[in-house]
């Protein structure tokens, strides 16, 4: 009964769900995390490593991992894929047009990762409060989400600053995961 | 009206809709859901049909049964009478009455196999059973539905005997499978798929009662005999019944028995459960669950629960007195299950009766039984929880608001500061009056005592159980009491801790590892629940840091990995429990300790646990220095490999100054003195890699301690220190060289601080360390040290030089081969070191080694081995000066000594000599200086060297260890490969070196030898020979000989062949027999395999051989043969005559049997091969009476006066072959005529001689030979008789056979002489 066994059991017993927040830099990943963790969001600087937060939702314990989005860090993303149940992909809806191509490429290459197979995918079209933000439908088209056959996915327009729709999105991803993993309870 | 009820416990929602999903996305979701990979790695869908098949395979039986029962039910309905069951039974309704029991058994067996397969499949899911969840419904429900119908039919029929038999015979596989599912996935999960209709209650109860051997006063007669295989079924039925007992109706309303005056349902179930509670097999667990479910029913709780609890408690106490473990186990489990499942209000009145049970923990019966102790600890915990109101301790530390909803509901302006956690505590302490309001019953003291004692139990499972219990209890305690418990746990850690001898730190050598493990588990549980308050961290962390490195020596090993693992759990819990600013004061200690453990622990699971804890801390605390980089470098997979973790990752992490000294200190003080020698070697290598990071640190902080330790009385310490000093010095020198300096030894005070003390170690090494206990390890380390120092251009001061030489030379004569190797390496290094200093090896040293390899009477064989090894490592001038003598000495040593006592025939010495010769030759050809002298030397020794190696290829010496010559042969093959490579290296354009090349004859000979070795019986030898053969054939350009292309065609370069596999190699090599130049050696190797010992080898080699010779023509055709299809042969001017059986037989006789007379290794297998060739008709088809006669003579010569039973029997079989296997006169099966009458005469002569030989054996002194020969003769005569029934000698032979059969051949040989003579007369023509 070593630590690793204990951890595996705890994850089962305490109905833990592991969610990874990824996306290009400046998409608002840490802001979303801090917002849903009820923290101050006025001072946020680029994430250089990762943050883990634990939250309770509907009887589930969410372990949310926020990993930095800068290009130099993206190669490290692979380290965090282990046992990931859900993926939250954050998009800056008011981003420069050329970045959407980058965003699409990163997302689609991410989904080919073997260790993410089966993870539920939530796309947050963030910064809906900004003028000139694209709607979630437009972003779905730009990112070619229809082509995704390997994962359950859902796109939700939201704003981390106002908190709009964050709950809707998180609710979808938790429900989807719990149906898959904890269907019996 | 429908009575179907969905139970609250089994509510499931299987709707597949996706919340807020668009249609396109629904499709995507459906596609993903259908994807079997959706649920994780091993897919179950591939096997789902297996289970369907299993159920289908039982369907005929079940259908038949169902039909019969339905029929029976109608009868029963028409006139149900008291004796109906008996009639039914007597009427033979049961399905298998007309089936032969044997067939039925066979069928059951086949079924069992299928089901066993399914069980194995399920076992694969034991580690990650939740992967089954998605498929459980599919697995369980069809089966249960089937059982449900059948059981209610059985119930209606009401025949208990029939029912019991159905369960035993028809249901058993299904119930077994259900049990296995519950074993893999857990009964709580599986049970949710069981049917739970009220209507099922009575049928299931009836079925279970029927299979029960219970002898109730109520008149139920003992029925089905206690069936040992049926426990799985009974367990499943009990589980089912426990589920059904939860139906939310008053059981009186569903009880059909009350009208007829039977026992109430509750009582019947209760009696059944109580009966099974003392079962020896798993039923007791089901029974405990059933009791709990029943007693916590609304309609039974008040009436039954108190009685049940008192009864179980009383029985538990009284069964201790009886010493009945099984009964006690059941009662304790029932009590703790009830305490867990029943509501607190119900339990409170009776809980005082339970507590006395906990006192049983001191009974000897319990003390000696881990399971009972565990149950008691569980019971104590649950009883304790009953005393305390369920509540979360208000005083516990809470890191903040963690509800996602609440966080998001609180609008944009809300922002919680991280400091909220500490405020929270202040708040809770503020309403103290509420906190301390309730009083804690005194009984809790004993509960807590049991739990705290459980933490120190010798069994892990009990410590773990106690730790969880403490976590739960403290959660309900008031602040001060909770903190008392935390303090008690810390006190447990302090128990037996001594002050370290140096006055600083702690000495943990006397503490109990169990206590530490349990305490760490408890602390982790408390921290995880927020019950370890931040202000206690200062008390706890220092102990955890010690626990992270906990390691207690126990003789030759140590224990404590479980403590380190638990300490990692504590660290992991800290990461989750506390806000960063609370951990901050401890970060640097925790971080470095965790990093060190994750990289430098011996055990992989501890490295991984520490790595997991570190990652958790990095992610949640964010304070750990360089956390991200370290997590990236030292992840779960990376730390899995110990060597990589020590040599690469630890070194990489040590580049961060925060971790440098911690890692260096851990490696130098803990890993380097580890009980495991491989750890010490690894630690020394790691120190070498760590050196360049901070040269000054190594030479100032680490080396001085090591220098002191090198002379330690403790083996581990001096071994590790000597290894490490050498590695560090070499690393220091290399760093200096990289920096541009020559050597670092003259700089600053290095000479006095480093060089002189280290030289002193070598100069004054205490001999007792080298010769006493562990001397081999010490010597090894010292030789390594000398090697490294020599490689590091050590300044030769004082007596260092001669002392080092002496130590190295002495090591050569040790018995341990590892030590000898290290000594040889030291000699080689010292020799090159002298070269640098332009001083050759001492003449005296060289003479000592040359003397050492000499073959003299009374020579020390270990010394010979070591000296031979060392001579091979010499380079430079000494080869010019004394090369001839060295070669000569080694070549002498490589020869098998035939004329001396066996003690000089040392296979290892010869092997080492051969290896040394090969490496010297390689040195000579590679050495760039003084090329001419070296080439001259090489040219001069080469012919004899090759002769030596060829002789070595024929080294088949054996001793008590078996074929020790194989080492020499292997070394020779490798040596030839090296020589061939030399030619390859220098061959082009350098005509002088061509002189060393082999002659073509030698190449053919070598290829033949390699072919031979490639088909011999030792797998390893075939592998070596095959590899060398392929290399010289394809990779060495100069290795040309006639027929090379032909051989290359037979052995293509890209042949994917596993030479060690006897299944492949023989078939592959067989066609090479067609090449006359390789036929004899190849056949010799083959014969040895055919006559080998291991069954698979003999089978594969003989099968390949027979198949091949059967495909050959018997005799060479008179005319030139037709064109062969092979293109290679077409290319040649005159194709060689095709291979015939005749040629094989000739080779076998003339080249193998004739040349190995009385060499049993080859001659006995040859006889066996001849027998094989008789058996498949090959000898007969060769049709050459002269050859036959020659063969017979050779065989006769071989067995003449032999006393080897194996050889005699093999010979007898061959003689028998000569008698019956040559074909009859005039017989002409090949259509090419049998030759003239003279030939026939010769054949008759051969047969006569062979028969005479056989008959002679009938009076052989060995009874075994007589018996076997009599049998052979009888068989031979019988087969002759079958061949031609109307032979005129039939009567005589008839009587000869009678005599052979009738005689007792075990009688003394003297009494059998007459019989033999009578047979001789009868059989001679």
UniProtKB/TrEMBL annotation, chain A:
Gene3D superfamilies: P-loop containing nucleotide triphosphate hydrolases
Keywords, comma-separated and alphabetical: GTP-binding, Lipoprotein, Magnesium, Metal-binding, Myristate, Nucleotide-binding
Pfam annotation, one family: Arf
Record's keyword annotation contains Protein transport: no
Binding sites annotated in the UniProt record for GTP: 23-30, 69, 126-129
Annotated Mg(2+) binding sites: 30, 47
Family, per entry: Belongs to the small GTPase superfamily. Arf family.
NCBIfam families in the record: small_GTP (TIGR00231)
Protein name in UniProt: ADP-ribosylation factor-like protein 2
Biological classification of the source: Eukaryota, Fungi, Fungi incertae sedis, Chytridiomycota, Chytridiomycota incertae sedis
Automatic annotation (TrEMBL), chain B:
Membrane-spanning segments: none
Keywords: Chaperone
GO biological process, one term: microtubule cytoskeleton organization
InterPro entries: ARM-like, ARM-type_fold, ARM_TBCD_2nd, TBCD, TBCD_C
Tagged with keyword Chaperone: yes
MF terms in GO: beta-tubulin binding; GTPase activator activity
Record-annotated Tubulin-folding cofactor D C-terminal domain positions: 1005-1207
Pfam families named in the record: ARM_TBCD, ARM_TBCD_2nd, TFCD_C
Residue ranges of domain Tubulin-folding cofactor D ARM repeats in the record: 371-628
Disordered: region residues: 1-35, 1116-1136
Residue stretches of biased makeup (Pro residues): 1116-1125
Keyword Chaperone: yes
Record protein name field: Tubulin-specific chaperone D
UniProt source species: Geranomyces variabilis
């Amino acid at each position: 009964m070593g630590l690793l066994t204990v951890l595996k059991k705890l994850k089962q017993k305490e109905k833990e769900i592991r969610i990874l927040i990824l996306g290009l830099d400046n998409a608002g990943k840490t802001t979303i995390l801090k917002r849903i963790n009820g923290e101050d969001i006025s001072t946020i600087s680029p994430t250089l490593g990762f943050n883990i937060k634990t939250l309770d939702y509907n009887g589930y314990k969410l372990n949310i991992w926020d990993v930095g989005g800068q290009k130099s860090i993206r190669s490290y993303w692979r380290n965090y894929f282990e046992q990931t149940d859900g993926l939250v992909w954050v998009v800056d809806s008011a981003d420069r047009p050329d970045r959407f191509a980058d965003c699409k490429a990163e997302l689609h290459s991410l989904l080919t990762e073997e260790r993410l197979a089966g993870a539920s995918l939530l796309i947050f079209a963030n910064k809906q409060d900004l003028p000139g933000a694209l709607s979630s439908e437009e972003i779905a088209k730009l990112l070619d989400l229809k082509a995704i056959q390997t994962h359950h996915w859902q796109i939700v327009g939201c704003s981390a600053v106002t908190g709009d729709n964050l709950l809707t999105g998180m609710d979808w991803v938790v429900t989807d995961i719990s149906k898959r993993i904890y269907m019996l309870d | 009206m429908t009575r179907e009820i969905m139970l609250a416990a089994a509510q499931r929602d299987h709707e597949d809709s996706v919340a807020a999903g668009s249609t396109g996305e629904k499709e995507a979701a459906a596609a993903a859901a259908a994807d079997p990979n959706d649920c994780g790695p091993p897919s179950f869908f591939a096997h789902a049909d297996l289970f369907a098949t299993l159920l289908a395979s039982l369907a005929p039986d079940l259908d038949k049964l169902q039909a019969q029962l339905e029929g029976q039910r109608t009868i029963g309905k028409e006139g149900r009478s008291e004796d109906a069951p008996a009639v039914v039974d007597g009427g033979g309704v049961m399905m298998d009455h007309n089936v032969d029991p044997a067939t039925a058994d066979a069928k059951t067996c086949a079924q069992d196999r299928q089901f066993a397969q399914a069980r194995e499949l399920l076992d694969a899911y034991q580690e990650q059973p939740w992967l089954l969840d998605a498929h459980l419904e599919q697995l369980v429900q069809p089966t249960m539905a089937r059982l449900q119908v059948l059981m209610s039919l059985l119930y209606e029929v009401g025949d208990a005997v029939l029912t019991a038999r159905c369960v035993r015979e028809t249901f058993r596989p299904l119930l077994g499978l259900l049990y296995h599912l519950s074993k893999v996935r857990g009964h709580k999960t599986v049970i949710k798929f069981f049917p739970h209709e009220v209507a099922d209650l009575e049928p299931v109860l009836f079925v279970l009662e029927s299979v029960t051997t219970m002898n109730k006063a109520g008149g139920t007669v003992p029925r089905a005999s206690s069936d040992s295989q049926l426990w799985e079924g009974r367990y499943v039925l009990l589980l089912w019944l426990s589920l059904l007992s939860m139906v939310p109706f008053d059981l009186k309303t569903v009880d059909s028995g009350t009208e007829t005056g039977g026992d109430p349902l509750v009582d019947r179930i209760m009696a059944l459960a109580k009966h099974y509670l003392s079962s020896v097999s798993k039923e007791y667990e089901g029974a405990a669950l059933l009791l709990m479910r029943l007693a916590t029913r609304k309609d039974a709780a008040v009436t039954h629960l108190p009685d049940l609890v008192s009864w179980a408690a009383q029985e538990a106490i009284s069964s201790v007195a009886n010493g009945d473990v099984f009964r006690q186990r059941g009662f304790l489990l029932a009590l703790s299950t009830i305490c867990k499942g029943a509501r607190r209000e119900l339990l409170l009145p009776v809980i005082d009766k339970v507590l006395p049970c906990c006192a049983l923990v001191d009974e000897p019966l319990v003390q000696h039984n881990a399971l009972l102790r565990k149950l008691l600890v569980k019971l104590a915990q649950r009883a304790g929880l009953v005393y305390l109101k369920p509540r979360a301790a208000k005083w516990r530390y809470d890191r903040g608001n963690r509800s996602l909803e609440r966080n998001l509901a609180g609008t944009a302006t809300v922002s919680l500061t991280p400091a909220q956690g500490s405020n929270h505590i202040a708040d809770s302490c503020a309403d103290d009056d509420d906190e301390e309001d309730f009083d804690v019953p005194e009984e809790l003291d004993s509960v807590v005592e049991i739990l705290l004692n459980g933490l120190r139990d010798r069994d892990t499972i009990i410590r773990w159980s106690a730790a969880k219990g403490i976590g739960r209890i403290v959660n309900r305690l008031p602040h001060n009491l909770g903190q008392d418990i935390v303090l008690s746990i810390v006190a447990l850690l302090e128990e037996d801790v001594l002050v370290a001898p140096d006055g600083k730190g702690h000495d943990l050598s006397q503490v109990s590892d169990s206590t530490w493990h349990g305490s760490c588990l408890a602390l982790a549980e408390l921290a995880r629940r927020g019950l370890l308050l931040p202000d206690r961290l200062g008390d706890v962390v220092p102990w955890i840091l010690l626990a992270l490195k906990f390691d207690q020596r126990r003789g030759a090993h140590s224990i404590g990995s479980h403590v380190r693992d638990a300490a990692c759990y504590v660290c992991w819990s800290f990461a989750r429990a506390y806000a960063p600013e609370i951990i901050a004061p401890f970060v640097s200690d925790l971080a470095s300790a965790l990093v060190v453990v994750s990289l430098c622990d011996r055990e992989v699971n501890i490295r991984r646990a520490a790595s997991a804890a570190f990652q958790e801390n990095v992610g949640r605390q964010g304070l750990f220095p360089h956390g991200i980089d370290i997590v990236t470098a030292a992840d779960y997979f990376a730390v899995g490999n110990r060597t990589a973790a020590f040599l690469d990752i630890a070194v990489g992490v040590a580049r961060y100054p925060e971790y440098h000294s911690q890692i260096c200190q851990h490696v130098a003080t803990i890993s380097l003195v580890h009980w495991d020698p491989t750890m010490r070697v690894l630690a020394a290598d790691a120190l070498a890699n760590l050196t360049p990071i901070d040269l000054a640190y190594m030479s100032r902080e680490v080396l001085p301690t090591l220098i002191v330790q090198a002379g330690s009385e403790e083996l581990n310490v001096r071994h590790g220190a000597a290894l490490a000093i050498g590695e560090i010095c070499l690393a220091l020198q290399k760093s200096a060289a990289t920096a541009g300096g020559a050597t670092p030894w003259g700089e600053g005070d290095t000479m006095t601080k480093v060089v002189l003390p280290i030289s002193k170690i070598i100069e004054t090494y205490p001999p007792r360390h080298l010769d006493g206990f562990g001397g081999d390890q010490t010597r090894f380390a010292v030789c390594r040290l000398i090697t490294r120092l020599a490689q590091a251009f050590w300044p030769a001061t004082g007596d260092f030089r001669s002392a080092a030489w002496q130590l190295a030379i002495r090591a050569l004569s040790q018995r341990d081969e590892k030590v000898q190797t290290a000594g040889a390496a030291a000699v080689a290094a010292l020799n090159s070191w002298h070269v640098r200093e332009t001083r050759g090896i001492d003449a005296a040293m060289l003479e000592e080694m040359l003397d050492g390899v000499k073959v003299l009477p009374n020579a020390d064989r270990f010394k010979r081995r070591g000296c031979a090894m060392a001579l091979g490592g010499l380079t430079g001038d000494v080869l010019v000066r004394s090369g001839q003598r060295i070669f000569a000495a080694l070549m002498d040593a490589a020869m098998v000594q035939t004329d001396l006592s066996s003690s000089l025939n040392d296979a290892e010495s010869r092997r080492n000599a051969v290896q040394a010769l090969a490496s010297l030759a390689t040195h000579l050809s590679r050495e760039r200086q003084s090329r001419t002298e070296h080439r001259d030397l090489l040219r001069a020794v080469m012919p004899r060297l090759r002769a030596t190696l060829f002789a070595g290829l024929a080294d088949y010496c054996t001793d008590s260890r078996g074929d020790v010559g194989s080492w020499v042969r292997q070394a020779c093959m490798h040596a030839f490969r090296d020589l061939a490579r030399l030619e390859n290296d220098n061959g082009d354009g350098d005509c002088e070196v061509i002189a060393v090349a082999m002659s073509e004859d030698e190449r053919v000979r070598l290829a033949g030898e390699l072919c031979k070795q490639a088909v011999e019986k030792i797998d390893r030898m075939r592998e070596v020979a095959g590899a060398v053969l392929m290399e010289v054939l394809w990779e060495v350009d100069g290795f040309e000989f006639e027929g090379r292309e032909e051989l290359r065609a037979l052995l293509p370069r890209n042949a994917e062949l596993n030479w060690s596999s006897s299944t492949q190699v023989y078939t592959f090599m067989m066609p090479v027999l067609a090449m006359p130049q390789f036929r004899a050696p190849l056949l010799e190797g083959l014969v040895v395999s055919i006559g080998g010992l291991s069954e698979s080898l003999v089978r594969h080699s003989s099968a390949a051989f027979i198949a091949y010779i059967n495909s050959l023509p018997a005799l060479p055709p008179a005319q030139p043969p037709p064109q062969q299809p092979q293109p290679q042969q077409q290319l040649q001017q005159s194709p060689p005559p095709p291979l015939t059986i005749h040629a094989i037989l000739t080779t076998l006789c003339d080249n193998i049997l004739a040349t190995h007379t009385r060499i049993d290794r080859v001659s006995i297998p040859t006889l066996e091969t001849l027998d094989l060739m008789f058996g498949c008709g090959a000898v007969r088809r060769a049709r050459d009476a002269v050859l036959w006669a020659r063969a017979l003579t050779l065989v006769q010569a071989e067995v003449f006066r032999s006393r080897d039973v194996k050889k005699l029997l093999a010979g007898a079989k061959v003689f028998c072959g000569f008698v019956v296997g040559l074909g009859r006169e005039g017989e002409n099966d090949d259509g090419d005529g049998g030759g003239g009458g003279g030939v026939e005469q010769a054949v008759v002569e051969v047969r006569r001689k062979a028969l005479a030989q056989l008959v002679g054996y009938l009076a052989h002194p060995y009874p075994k030979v007589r018996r076997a020969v009599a049998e052979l003769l009888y068989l031979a005569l019988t087969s002759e008789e079958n061949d031609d029934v109307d032979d005129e000698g039939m009567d005589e032979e008839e009587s000869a056979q009678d005599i052979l059969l009738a005689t007792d051949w075990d009688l003394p040989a003297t009494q059998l002489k007459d019989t033999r003579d009578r047979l001789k007369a009868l059989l001679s023509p």
